[in-house]
Protein: Proline--tRNA ligase
Amino acid sequence: MRQTHYLSPTLRDVPADAEVTNHQLMLRAGLIRQTASGVYSFLPLGLRALKKVENIVREEMDMAGAQEVLMPAIQPAELWHESGRWEAYGPELMRFNDRHNREFALGPTHEEVITTLVRDDVKSYKKLPMTLYQIQTKFRDERRPRFGVLRSREFIMKDAYSFDTTQQGLDVSYDKMYEAYTNVFNRCGLDFRAVVADSGAMGGKDTHEFMVLSGIGEDTIAYSSESNYAANIEIAPVVANYSKSTEEVLSLEKFSTPDLKTIDELEDSLGINKEALIKAVLFIVDEKPVLALVRGDHDVNDVKIKHYYEASIVELASREQTLQYMKCEPGFIGPIDISEEVDVVADVAIQYVVNAVSGANEKDYHYRNVNPERDFKVKEYIDLRFIKEGDLSPDGQGVIKFAEGIEVGHVFKLGTRYSESMGAIFLDENGKTQPMIMGCYGIGVTRTVAAVIEQHNDEKGIVWPRAVAPFDLHLIAVNMKDTEQKDLSEQLYKQLMKDGYSVLFDDRAERPGVKFADADLIGLPLRITVGKKANEGIVELKIRKTGEVVEVQLEQLSSELT
Ligand code: ATP
Ligand code: MG
Ligand code: MG
Ligand code: MG
Structure:
């Protein structure tokens, strides 16, 4: 591509409203322009990088056996009523009415649409499993769009959805996507971690986020210094294996649950500082939650303790809810609604800080002197917000460290949340109807481009990894008025493209300093400069990443490039 007529408007100065590096560089290198708040146009260079990422994603999806489809951005409200999300989704959902006053939304995600597609056309187990994906524009009216295309209101996502007949089948589909995501982000040259994530109200701990490590990341990751353990600190559940059977637990020494007191009363009577709370761990006996331990230190007023139930995670956010929870029978499974005040849990929690107490059932039905190390095997701790850097990692290997991360991908085991509410059922081998078991998997394609730039840059500009660079080579003619330079660069331009390289050819009548500065800013991996030594058949090759410059004889050029 010749630069003279190319729409690649570079900026020398840092735009005032761009706070972070990737946003600044995407504007300065002429990759994007803002059209409205959180709404961007991609200029040619930006689009080429975006397409590179899209193609990597597409190749890995196809390789994993996923089938590409394209669904509409416009989605009728009825589908969202069916799933129950029209109300639940809130103001991030961009809604509008058509001329007949029918309600629609601009899709922020496509569970509803894909579920109806598959529901209508897949009826038998013989067609399953099946994973479908698309690369398409999504709309979310973000409360705070920022950092350029990192958090925008219109963005491109790759979203995939798997449909299986069994839970084990879902596990296989999920693992394939997990692996494909790992490949995608490796190929994009990103330094990332897959972290255990918070599955919200949808249950299970089977969700991972792919986090690009970066100081501007909006999520905090707790990871082990020694092992692969990594989790979003938002993560709620403690998933612990209780090493005793239910019978053994029930035969432990019982003690009388003290009457519940207010925090202030407790402070007085027990001399416990209410600030000296709270670390909660919920243990699970025979896969059922039966025990909450509370200890540690945290500002009570900030505390929201989340508890893990078999299929859903709930936040115990009011005293009533906490009491309700504490009175439930062993093996009780949620649901408890989330709401209201917070300092709550502290009331109940503080009473158990004295002893490790098991029970979570009727009054007078708790067990004293339960020893976490002896009686419980902790796999993960609840609510990593209460974990401090330097604490022992929950997997017992190494200590906890924190890092900021940018969520570029998210894989999620949905189960039957949508297939049940929207009737996506199939006939199994015995002719019985069953709901399909689903997973969903998203990659922020535009965000990934931004994340790449955030990790690959220096003071002069972008330093593209080869796989996502808009062009392979930047060919620069230092002086287009010099016939020898002009002829050689024109000849090289054609030859390099013939050899299969994508080439940006700076054939502009600009000063060399401008050309070099733009080349550094745009950041293509290799620069070939045709200058004074053109008459000797010598060009200069510069590696953007290292700054290394070598003079190369034309005959050697193709071998130098490989
Ligand atoms: P976030 O926590 O950043 O708001 P999310 O958890 O809401 O993201 P998902 O619903 O998991 O996002 O969507 C899948 C992927 O889409 C995310 O992992 C992210 O890469 C991308 N994405 C989500 N919201 C945006 C946005 N506003 N702008 C750009 N990309 C986004
Ligand atoms: Mg979001
Ligand atoms: Mg998120
Ligand atoms: Mg997410």
User: Anything to note?
Assistant: Residues 209, 407, 410 surround magnesium ion (ligand 4) (CB under 6 Å).
